[in-house]
Amino acid sequence: MAPTIFLLLALFSIVESTAGEGGGLKLELIRHRLSPDNVSPMAAKSQIWPETSQFIVKIAVGTPPTEVHAIFDTGSDLFWAQCRPCVKCYRQTNPIYDPSKSSTFRTLSCKSPQCHLTGSGAACSGTDTCKYGYGYGSGSTQGELATEKMAVTSRSGATTSFSGVVFGCGHNNSGTFNANEMGLIGFGRGAVSFVSQIGPSVGGRKFSLCLMPYNTDPRISSSLSIGSGSEVKGPGVITAQLVRTSDQTSYSLTLKGISVGKTFVPYSTSGPPAKGNAILDTGTPPTLLPKELYGRLAAEVRRQIPSKPIDDTLCYKGNLGNLVMTLHFDGGVNLRLSTIQTFNKMPDGSFCFTAMSVDDKDALIGNSMMANFLVGYDIDNMTVSFKPTDCTKIG
Ligand SMILES: *[C@@H]1O[C@H](CO)[C@@H](O)[C@H](O)[C@H]1NC(C)=O
Ligand SMILES: *[C@@H]1O[C@H](CO)[C@@H](O)[C@H](O)[C@H]1NC(C)=O
Q: What gap in Å lies between CA 152 and CA 318, rounded to an integer?
């Protein structure tokens, strides 16, 4: 649509960067081990949400910079951080970003084109400042949309900065965030997402990720590559065309079914699956499957694992055997998963299935199932590529 294109162009000419011509970025994604008093009761009770289940990007915001640790999320667009003055902020270990101390902070007005970018959650009413509101399954944030100078540091030590990046200055934030998570950085397809904004100055709106399996030492960081050099190619690469749905944020694929060993479990028993029924969401640790599909899948997993599960869970103390599961997406895209991706080791030594059932007709592929794949997201080409990779070997 023409208005969208106009806004994109308006934005691209606004973000300025110190990146060399088309130079890509190679960043670290870290996981935080929580101190015991930081673990929310919900996380402690739930069997498949161990600590260190989110991947965090470090980004320097403002002048002089405040280091913000933000959850890396392909399931949303906006970058927001807890921001003073707080109407309501959850507890945070590091200092909360204070725009009154930054010389490069600018609030946006409702008249500015950036206030109306896709995925911004902007709401203009009454006042002239661009307010936003954003809700997640597990929390919400409200505040004002603003622009700031942002900088990221590559593994090589080089720092690249970007001026005029649109972000949410969150004054009213709540949810299941822990004290080490200072905000959330959206890498969705929408125009306001961090990758959409900085992509043109680093060689394109594309990025790739290699996430460590849960069971690796959380001190080992995972990799995030943005722009040129992030392409996933070579032998063993499986590329899928993303499905265009009404949702302009998500990376959607069509999941036809899941095999357990040689047994194919179809997505639905009542006809073909809806187009774009599965999204890739790094901001959610478990994979979420519709109840009915989960039931059929769980029965098959129980049938094929040699040992007995603990009570009526899909957690095992004993041998998992050599269980191979395959995600079958449209277009002949088949992702083979080993127990590294399908079972998490719990603190008590048992192994629990990384998928859960939800009351929804669509599926969400969480970050645990994408571990040890180099996954390339290309917004302009509308593709996602997968390459089985030992992520500890990527630097
Ligand atoms: C803060 O956010 C909560 C949750 O969305 C909302 O109910 C409340 O009214 C907000 N408070 C203010 C002062 O805006
Ligand atoms: C993506 O699209 C560009 C042109 O828009 C093309 O040059 C490039 O080869 C494409 N990349 C892949 C991996 O298809």
A: 44
Structural domain including 379 reads: 238-393
Q: What are phi and psi of 389, to 5 degrees?
A: -150, 140
291 falls within a domain? yes
pLDDT at 169 over 90: yes
Of the residues 226, 257, 280, the one at which a domain ends: 226
Q: Ligand 1 pocket: which of 83, 88, 125, 177 to mutate (most atoms <8 Å of CB)?
A: 88
Please count the residues of the chain: 395
Atom 5 of ligand 1, residue of closest alpha carbon: 140
Residue 231 domain-assigned (yes or no): no
Indicate which CATH number applies to the domain containing 328: 2.40.70.10
Q: Are residues 221 and 249 in the same domain?
A: no
Give the C-alpha separation, 289 to 250, whole Å: 17
pTM of the model: 0.90
Same domain, 254 and 166: no
Q: Name the residue with the closest Cα to ligand 2, atom 2.
A: 381
Closest residue (by CA) to atom 10 of ligand 2?
A: 381
Q: Tell which residue, 19, 29, 57, has the closest CA to residue 161.
A: 19
Work out the number of other CB atoms within 10 angstroms of the CB of residue 233.
Answer: 10
Alpha-carbon span 171 to 107, nearest angstrom:
13
Q: How many CB atoms lie within 10 A of CB 194?
A: 27
Answer whether residue 217 is part of any domain.
yes
Identify whether 232 is part of a domain: no
390 lines ligand 2 (CB under 6 A): no
Which bound ligand lies closest to the C-alpha atom of 232?
A: 2
Q: What is the pLDDT of residues 27-50, one digit of tens each?
A: 999 987 654 444 443 443 344 455
Residue 207 · residue 187 · CB < 8 Å: yes
Coil vs helix vs strand at 109? strand
Quick one: 118 and 46 in the same domain?
A: yes
| Single residue among 203, 226, 249 that ends a domain in this structure | 226
Q: Which residues are catalytic?
A: 73, 281
Q: What total of structural domains would you count in the chain?
A: 2
Ligand 1 atom closest to 88 (CA): 1
- The 10s digit of each residue's pLDDT in 170-224 is 999 998 888 889 999 999 999 999 999 999 999 999 999 999 998 888 888 999 9
294: which 2 tokens?
Answer: 């989960």
